[in-house]
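Table S5 (text form). Sequence records supplied for joint modeling of the three-component complex.
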Amino acid sequence: MSNLRQELKKQIIEQLNLEDLEITDINDNDELFGDEIGLDSIDALELIVLLEKEYGIKITDPKEGKEVFYSVETMASYIEKHS
Amino acid sequence: MKKACYINGISSLSPQSTAEEENFDFQQIQTFQKPVLQVAFKNYKKLIKPVAMRRMSKSVKMGVFTAASALIDAEVKTPTSILTGTGMGCKQDSDIFLENLLLQNEELLSPSKFVQSTHNTVGGQVALYLKSKAYNFTYVQGSASFESALLDAQLSILTEEKPHQILVGGIDEISENTIGLLQLDQQIKNEPEIKNLQLLDYPSKGSIIGEGAHFFVISEEKTATSYAQLLDLHLENAIEVEEVAIKTKQFLAQNQLQASDIDLIILGNNGDKDFDTYFQPLQHEFKQTPQVFYKHLVGESYTASAFGMQLGVKILKAQFIPEAYRLNAIQPQKAIKKVLLYNQFRGKNHSWMLLAHV
Amino acid sequence: MSKRIAITGMGVVSAIGTNVQENLLALKQQKSGIGQLRLLATVHQNFPCGEIKLTNAKLVEELKVQQEETFTRAALLGVKAAEEALQQAQISAKHKIALVNGTSVGGMDYTEKLYQDFSKNPHTTKYIEAQHPGFTSDTIAHHLGIKGLVTTVSTACSSGANALITGAKLLKAGKVETVLAGGTDCLSKFTLNGFNSLKILSEQLCQPFDQHRKGLNLGEGAAYLVLETEEKANAENKTILGYLEGYGNANDAFHQTASSATGEGSFLAMQAALNAAHIHPEEISYINAHGTATENNDLSEGIAVQRIFKKQLPKISSTKAFTGHTLAAAGAIEAVFSLLSIQEQKVWPNLNFQTQMAELSFSPETKIVSQKIEKVLSNSFGFGGNCSSLLFSAV
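The corresponding structure-token record, covering 836 residues in total, follows.
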């Protein structure tokens, strides 16, 4: 399994304060904003901050975030493409 | 015909709570050696789902928990309004947002921290938790913050022709980040070690600080389990020491009472040598009356007086004055029927509350 | 039992003027006060704001503030607007009146300026307490000579409107005879960065209710109304500017910051205001909308308005494109604009509007409309799902 994906899961849990989740609870393809993880619009903004802070990638339009943050997998491929 | 306000449910989280049990006990007293008294309670899961808790700061957790348990205590499902008072709101997150803003030169800031910084966060989160679309107000007025919310509860009952089940509470939390500033500002005593039970024996400026959340359910409807009645309350923004006794008598007179009708007085002494002078006129005026205080047990905070009210309500119900809270040695000569509370902070935001046995 | 609440004085300071007359003139000339920041020292100069181009030093001089009084900018703006209101209502015995203030950040401008220096400069420690909003209200009360009941409502962007509700309740219950109620907030790095972190600030002039709106512009200001019972105002032969005929507050209980798609909270608030005033929706001539120009607010508010008024919509506009979103002051400033609308018999225009929103069946007014205006609804919504609606009526 890729390190980037693992690293992302750890960062998501930390940044979003998902205290009760373990890295193993999040699958690469789980829908982050759906029933599985249950994130909301403020979390999406936190993820934008996370991408910029940790990977230097700027997303200016929150709407673009929707596709990028669909799952850990989509986030990872976006990072791989843009870094 | 003046409508009455009955207190039908209570819940409190304070430095007197234990890790497991929220409500304070008259016999089991928590003691502290430092001037910062934190709430040790951990058992929020009893009422709040872990997933809902992840973005809740301490004051939100304390507020939602005590709001929910006060409703359970009153056997009320849906409140007709949610009223909160807080001096500082979610201070921890506000301080973190501010510090990051300054350190990171206004870049890469967490929106969650900002969202928490609005003072009505607890009120809003209680509404979310209860899925309540009811009237929802938050007051922020120094040491009269909780009293302002309580005043709104009284106004609602007096002016609106409908049944009320009002959830009203006071919430404040300690922020580690600004303890130093409160020391600098002489709000916290500078002695390295302070035994809280001897708070009034330190002849210095400042006090010890605390935190907590205290909720009440208030209705015009008396129930079989009503705790007490709130007869009236009064606020004054700025008065002189010399006016305290006069204002107190005026307030009692407005309620057709005189000093001799009061069976117990609860004062907000916090050991600050510059401002405890405000309590002296009443300590003198009511020297034949049993007196209690509470800030040595829960610390000073802008909503500490909400704890004072919980104490008054519990004493009225139990007809018993716990030893650790006594300010003088006078024993009650008869049943405790009327309780007067007076509080102020640094000479500002004075409040009087009058409770009666039911 | 139910006493009618009369308004006998009003005062306002905003980006479009430092008193009621200047604000009225700008509204009539359709002149916005939003533009480049000049006073607030922030890295985010790309966001236009409704900044009042009066420095604190200038305000201190104008208001004759004494050295020992500890003034934050919100307090300075507050005193300026409050003095105008008290003067119009001819209030001399200030110790007899209550102040119900609305503010969200209070003295945060000083906190953010001094936070790292408190320990170095002993003379600044008096501002440590300034972080809590009550401090700003205390300062205003002290300067005005108000010593009795002083309280502060802090429900984010509906604070000013809610302060008026609490003021009306105090009068109805007979707790006090005269209330000075309203709100004040100044621009601060704290709020600018906060709204920026939520990505709801626009780099262009805001476009309320426009299909292509890009977010809000922040503003600053203060406004206060003097409220008295009709009975007292008449007994003292005072000129009544209008009545606060009804009000409602409800919670959206949907999300901490976002409004629900059905506008449930705003719907309930408007409905409660109408019910309290015993008024049918068709009697409303104008809605001064909250209309912040964020994607979420305007949609939610628009849907709620349609749910209340069905096919018979009154004229509607948001005046945020004049002043910017002045947070806790907004409800009070817009209360003044609503009363001016009644006084002038004019609907104020919704500046910068071009394209109707696809989801809504109405467009706001883009030009001044002269018509008979008897009853105006003014909306204010805030974080925490807090929704309020005030109903003003002509004399």
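Note: Chain B touches chain A through eleven residues (CB under 8 Å).
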